[in-house]
Structures are given as C-alpha cells and as structure tokens.
Design goal:
176 residues, alpha/beta, Leucine Aminopeptidase, subunit E, domain 1, six-stranded mixed beta sheet, 6 strands, 41% helix, 17% strand
Amino acid sequence: MTNEALKRIKVIQGDITKQTVDAIVNAANNALSGGGGVDGAIHQAAGPELVEECNGLGSCPTGEAKVTKGYNLPAKYIIHTVGPIYGKENGYEPELLARAYKSSLNLALQKQFKTIAFPSISTGYYGYPKKEAASIAVKTVAEFLAAHPEIEEIRFVVHSDENFGLYQDLMTKLNG
C-alpha cells in the first residue's frame, strides 16, 4: 500500500448521517430493515422512503452490499453492507468483514462514487472486537485505494473516543 493511498483516508469523529459525500455506508442487517446503532440512525435520518426502497431489494448476504438513494441525507447514496456477527461465522469473521468493505468499495467504483464514508462495521451489536475490526477496515481500504486512484476520499466516521483513537493510531503507524 502506498502513502498516496493513505493520504486519501480520513478519520473523523462525528455523525455519519451528516457527511456530505457521494455515499455513506450503512452497517446493515441481512433484511436491510433498519435496526439499532448506525443502521437505525441512517434509516431515521434518511426518512421513510429508504424503508420502501430497501423492502424492494430483498435480503443482502453477509459480506455483500447493495445501494439505495440517500433521500433526506446530505449523501446522495447509501451503500448497505452486512458485516459478520462475531463468533457466529465459524472462524470466517475476518474474511467476511474484509469482504463487506471490498463489496462496498466495488459497488462505489461501479457507480463512480468519488467520496465514501464508512462506519466501523460489525463492532456494535454484532460484537466484533473494535481494534481487530479497525485493523481489517484500514488495511482493506488502503489496499483497495492503492489499486483504484479514481476514488478520491474515504472517511472512517466513528462516534466514540475509543474508536477514534484506534483508527488514528492505525493511520499513524501506517504513515510511518
């Protein structure tokens, strides 16, 4: 991974629903029905049209991604991805978490999105250890950006001081 790719990654402590980007990523459930945490906040901020569009998409397998409009959000689109439930994927949790990020990025590339904001996928209700999840997220995104200069910026938008510190530390180590 290159320093050039790392320069396109930002870590922000704040509310993902307030990000003005081409797409925000939703840490969704398989039914795309809205839930708690980031998923619930995105559904609430986007408005009832999001539920209607999600209902028409069917389910989304773990590690995959689907896209909807952003509706009442500043982001034009929402990429919904399903991360793994920690301890329930027969040891495949790291691969499935990386795949959730890659699927989201591939969809962004296909849709020609230039700016994308990610939450910390699977670390809330799904119980993924935050430090391990952050490491997988940063590594996966940095490797993808090194191969795809057309994506201009990736933001990791985290809510807690703990997650902000974890992502900042990882970025500092990678930047050497």
